[in-house]
C-alpha cells in the first residue's frame, strides 16, 4: 500500500515532532512555574514617581515606563559639595518635606520646601523636566556623582538656583540630574548586572534597580501586625516604602516568588499595545527609611522596622535586613496606567540577593 505524502507527513508529525514539541512546551512550563503555580492576574492600583531621590513623591494616573524606570523617577538627586556624594532620608529625614510637582503644560518640575526659620515662606525653583542637551550645556556642569558604591557623570545645576537650600540642609549642597538616556549610563550591579541579568541595563539615581513593585495585600498584612504591636489606630501608608508600581496583589507576600511580570490593558482594546515585560531581579531589602513619616519628616523609634525584622528577613542573600517589595528591570518601554492588568508570567524559588558586581 502506498501512502500519500500528506499521510506520511502526518505520521512523521505525530511520531516524531509532536512529542518533541510537547516535551519542550512541558519543560518550559515547568521552568516558568519553578516557584509554584502562577497566581491570578491582578491590577495596578497606583503609580508613583519620586523625581528627586529621597524627596516627596507624586502619585500619577499614567507614566512612561523606560528602561531606567518610570520617566521622571529619581532622575534628580541632592549631593554634598565638593565631593558630590548622595544625600538621602538616612542623612536628613526632613528631605521628604521637599516637594517636587510636575507641570504638564510647561513640562517643568516645580520644587518647593519649607524655608528654615519661617512659617509662611517657601523655598522654590523650577527646572525643565525634559531638558535638551543644549539647555544642559548652557545651564549645568558635568560632575562625578556618587550613589553608594557607584560614581556616574551627572549634570550639576547652578548655585543661583539651589543655594537657598544650603540652609535647609545645614550644609553646602548641589542638585544633580541624570537623563534616562545618557552616553555614560549608570549600569546596574548585583542581580541587575549583565552577568546575572544577561543584558545591559541602567538606572538614574535609584539605590539599585529601575522599578520597585509593591503589593497592597502585603501592606495590609503588615498593618494588621503593626496595630497589634502598637495600638489599633496605628498603620502606615504605602508611601513609606516608596514603590513605583502598587498592585492589588493576591495573597500577602506572594511577590516573594515572582520572576517575571507582564503589564497590559485591563480590557482588550483595538489599539495595539506592546505589553512590557519586567524581570523581577531581587527582593527589596529595607533600612530604617520606612520609619520616617513622609508628611512630617519625623522618624518613628520602632515601627515598622521592629515588626518587619521579626518576620520579613526572608532573603537568603541578605538575612540581616527585612524585605518589602520586588525590584524589577523593564525589558521594553511602554506607557503604563493605573487600572492596567498585571500578570505574573513566571515564578521562582531561587531568589537570592547578590551584592556588588
Ligand atoms: C548619607 O547617608 C548614606 C547612607 O547611610 C551614607 O553612605 C553617606 O555617607 C551619608 N552622607 C553624608 C554626607 O552624611
Ligand atoms: C544656549 O546658549 C546660546 C548662546 O547664549 C543661546 O543662543 C541658546 O538659545 C541657548 N539655548 C538654550 C536651549 O537655552
Ligand atoms: C540573583 O543572583 C543570584 C546569584 O546568581 C541567583 O541565585 C538569584 O536567583 C538571582 N535572583 C534572581 C531573582 O534572579
UniProtKB/TrEMBL annotation:
Species assigned in the record: Polyplosphaeria fusca
Gene Ontology MF, one: pyridoxal phosphate binding
Keyword Membrane attached: yes
Record-annotated membrane-spanning stretches: 6-26
Pfam families: MOSC, MOSC_N
Keyword presence, Transmembrane helix: yes
MOSC domain span: 186-345
Superkingdom of the organism of origin: Eukaryota
Keywords: Membrane, Transmembrane, Transmembrane helix
Name of this chain's protein: MOSC-domain-containing protein
